[in-house]
Request: fold
Amino acid sequence: MINNQPELETLTKNRDLFKGLLIGACILWVFILAAAFYFYSKKGSIALFVPVFTLIVAFLPVYLRFKTLDAEIKSKKPD
Reply:
């Protein structure tokens, strides 16, 4: 059997990096959403709603890469 432990460790590190990025983006997204509602209620400005939705679109490739890495790790991990 071929030892794929270093490759598995690299995949796990990359998956954890992407997971951290997604958690940070979700926290940031909540604050931007709250600020958007606040400014909309105070000034009627909807300008902050643009970053709320573009942040979701911007981090979609990160989420897809995270899911791919997770599936690859599960397929290579011995049960």
The mean pLDDT is 89. The helical segments are 5-43, 49-58, 60-76. The chain has one domain: 13-71. The longest helix spans residues 5-43.
